[in-house]
Amino acid sequence: MSDNKLIKAIKEKGKTMEAEMSFFGHLEALRWHLVRASIAIVIFTAVVFYYYDWIFAHVIMAPSKPTFWTYRMLCDLGAALHRSGFCIDKINIHLINTEMAGQFTLQINSALIIGVTLGIPYLIWEIWRFIKPALHEKERKAATGFVFYACLLFFLGIMFGYYVITPMSINFLSGYTVSTQIQNLFSIDSYISSVATLTLATGVVFQLPILVYILANLGILTPKFMRETRRYAIVIILIIAAVVTPTPDMLTMTVVSIPLFVLYEVSIIVAGLVEKRKRKRHEEVMS
């Protein structure tokens, strides 16, 4: 009896050690995926740092100039509608640096932010490579194009934040005054932080259909539930629009809210497709 117990204990210990080795093996694999993604981000950051003068003048500071694409399009729209109020000829923004090493740390921090932004698609791809082997064949087919659509939505959000939300916010906030006795002098850190937050936050918000796709596959969300809670979703979207846009004017909030409403409706369609596929799979198993 004691020999049987000993053999059983050894077998159980062997299974436990095998499971632990498998767990640490997965951690090791994940570590190398993250290392490769980090190297890519470092490379992007180094490239941005090298070409920083051009990037600072033509990308970072572009929304603060009346020649920016968004302002020119608004002016053209005003001309087409015979409305002169659409043109923005001047932006009253004056940037200052208040720290000794401020401009040096500014270059490092902003280069890192842009490097991370450019490296996110590769990070998503590496995470997908880590998850993919654990999926069944049908699950892999169902998730085909996941990386492409996640990156596409992210950069669409980045472009929307950069070309729509950021210039509208800068134009409003730079000209807003409580009193004529107070002069607006913005620190360069505040400007960089505002531009980065507005663009990156919008890129994250545009991942809504991807999030809904994952939750629908897990059975947490259904298209019926999303349709029934649409009125609450509208309130949440308006709150998100108010948080994302630092300007209190209704025009900016409306411009931000419309794409979010569209994303929500697209998410309902995505959840419906997932439910339809799960129903079809269930019928195939039952037949």
TrEMBL record:
The name this protein carries in UniProt is: Sec-independent protein translocase protein TatC
Q: State the annotated membrane topology for this chain.
A: Multi-pass membrane protein
Q: Which family does it belong to?
A: Belongs to the TatC family.
Gene Ontology cellular component? TAT protein transport complex
InterPro entries recorded:
TatC
> Where's it mainly located?
membrane
Regions crossing the membrane: 34-52, 104-125, 146-165, 195-220, 232-248, 254-274
Q: Where is the protein localized?
A: Cell membrane; Membrane
Give a GO biological-process term: protein transport by the Tat complex
Pfam families in the cross-refs? TatC
Q: How does it assemble?
A: Forms a complex with TatA.
Q: Which domain of life does the protein's organism represent?
A: Bacteria
Q: What species is given as this protein's source?
A: Mucilaginibacter lappiensis
The family database entries (NCBIfam families) matched by this protein are listed as:
tatC (TIGR00945)
Q: Which UniProt keywords apply?
A: Cell membrane, Membrane, Protein transport, Translocation, Transmembrane, Transmembrane helix, Transport
Q: Which ranges of the sequence are coiled-coil?
A: none
Q: Gene encoding this polypeptide?
A: tatC
What GO MF annotations does this protein's record show? proton motive force dependent protein transmembrane transporter activity
Stated role: Part of the twin-arginine translocation (Tat) system that transports large folded proteins containing a characteristic twin-arginine motif in their signal peptide across membranes.
